[in-house]
Structure formats: C-alpha cells, structure tokens
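Risk register update: the risk of archive-format incompatibility is retired. Evidence:
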Amino acid sequence: MVETREPGEADEMGNMNEMDGMDEMDAKGPRGTLGVAVIGTGRMGADHVRRINDVISGARVAAVADLDAARAGRLADGIDGATAYTDPAAAMDDPGVDAVLIASPGPAHEAALLDAFARDLPVLCEKPLTPDAASALRVLEAEQKLGRRRVQVGFMRRYDAGYRTLKSRLDAGTYGRPLMLHNKHRNADTPPGFTDAMMINDSVVHEIDVTRWLLDEEITAVRVLRPAPTGNAPDGLSDPQLILFETAGGQVVDTELFVNCGFGYQVGCEAVCENGTARIGDDHGVFVNTAGHWGGTITPGFVERFEDAYDRQVQHWVDATRRGEVEGPSCWDGYAAAAVCEAGVLAQATGERVAVELIERPDLYR
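Archived output:
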C-alpha cells in the first residue's frame, strides 16, 4: 500500500486542523529558527528563498548554492546572514545550516542528497527525487542505511486544498470505492527544447504521484495514446497526449496532457466512485457578468496555481523538521514515480502497454 501519512487532516473545505502556515511553537521557541541551505537558485530555488524569507515562519535562509556564483551572490546579498556558495557540500557545512532544500536540476539531486545524508541533514527535495529509477533506488538504499527517513519529496499537489479535500473524502469512503480517475493537465506553452520524454518526466509525474496518493495503490502499467497534434506545438513534439494508468487495485486512470493549449494553465481531477463522483480544479476565481461578457480567469502558470500549496508544503516541512520528524512524500514515492515515468517514456516510444517494475517496498517506507 502507498504511504498516506500526512502532516494534518483536511476538513471538508480543504483547511488544515493543524496550524496551516504557522508552527505551534514561536519561531524563537524551543528549537529556535531553522537555518536552511537552498541548493539551486533558478526559478524554483529563488521562489523558495523568497518563501522562506518573507512568507513562512520558523526558518531563515542561512546559505544558498549555485554553480552560477553571480546569481547565488545576488540572491544572498538581499538576505541578512545568508552566505553564497558554488559548492552544495560547502553550503551544507555552513555553521548556520540545520536543513537543506534542494531545488537544483534533477541530474544534480543524487549527489546533493548523498551529501546531506553524510551530514545527517533533513531535506526537502524538489521533484524529481532523481531523473531515473536506478539513481532513485541508490538514494533509497542510502537513506535506509541511515535507519530513518531524512527526505521529503516536493510533490506539492498533496498540499493543495482541493486535492487534500478530495483525498480526505476518498479515504472516508464518502462516495464508495474509487473506480477511475480523470485528470487534466494543460499548459499555455512549453519552453524551447521541450521533448516528448519531458511531457512524462516533468509534467505527468505530478499525476503519477497524485494517482498513487489519492487511490493508495501502486501504478502497475502505462499506455500513451497520441491524438492528432496541435498546430501550436513545436516541431517534433507530439501534443496533446492521453496517458492511461492501471493500478494494483484494478482502477483505471486517464490523464489528458495538453502542454501547448495556448490559453493558460489548468489542472483538475475527477474521481469516479461506486456511489458518486467528485471533481476539483474548476475554480476560476471571481465570475463576472459585464458589458456583454461573462466568465472568470484562467491561471497563467503552475507557480500561481499552486502558490498556496508550495507555501503550505514548505511550512509543514519546517514545522516537522523543528519537531525532529519527517513527513510527506518519501524517497519511496520519488522512486515509484521515477519507475512509472520510465515505463511511460517507453510506452510513448512503442505505443504499447508497458508494465511498471518496482522492487519490494522496504519496511522503512511502510
């Protein structure tokens, strides 16, 4: 079964019955303020630096690290007490660092994680855990040698209010046993160099994780169907795609992936159960009628759509770390997602149904 332990339960409106954005302890309480080293200062890393510095409580940015020394220096210069490094290991050795947030590109994650393990530092690692199942398995094995969890993987949708409400209702059996999930994942456009494989590894990986989490089942097989492509897609990119998952419990899940839709960012999920259905992702903000027009707005990108989820995710990581605990998506979840992604990329290339290969789940992650 998939691990479902989370840092709080959602009520019917998706609110948390734990402190949702504030630790029960004051930031200067028994454990003091958590000093965080942020590894990677690109778009996500810089946003996490802002989040730790300006939004959440109980933590401060003690160090930043990036191969681009100038970029890291500019970011650190704006934060009192933060030091810039070009070597992630050196940033972890900073005397003010108590924990690590990894936001560097995926291929750099394994080395950074192993460096954190060597220092017994707790980690929030942006997805992917690593870019492939083999390296994710090495990280999994290294963490097991520590004898305890040190990593939370950044699958932030688990912290979105809508997804948390849906999860709580499915767990409670409100609509009976889940039979199917319908996902949509639309993006206005893609950056240069975006490939078919990235459609799985960078986009559908989120549907992979929420499928496992919502249904509490492992994904056992993947198929990818390719409709006629949109004229808005770059040459060589097959867009849209329909991805089909089968689970160990017999559920079937489909994901419409359309990453050059042209009109904005939309993510949603509908659960079809024995006694009813439940859907999230239809919120368009304020709905207006004016001057012959009616409607709402569509979120422009993932950062805006999931801003609250990112805030909540980092806050809960900080709170749990200050308590000496590790919660949320684990290295097992990161490894399982990587294995499903590999099956998905192969299914893209062959047009065939591809089985997902997983090792037996270790006791540490049960």
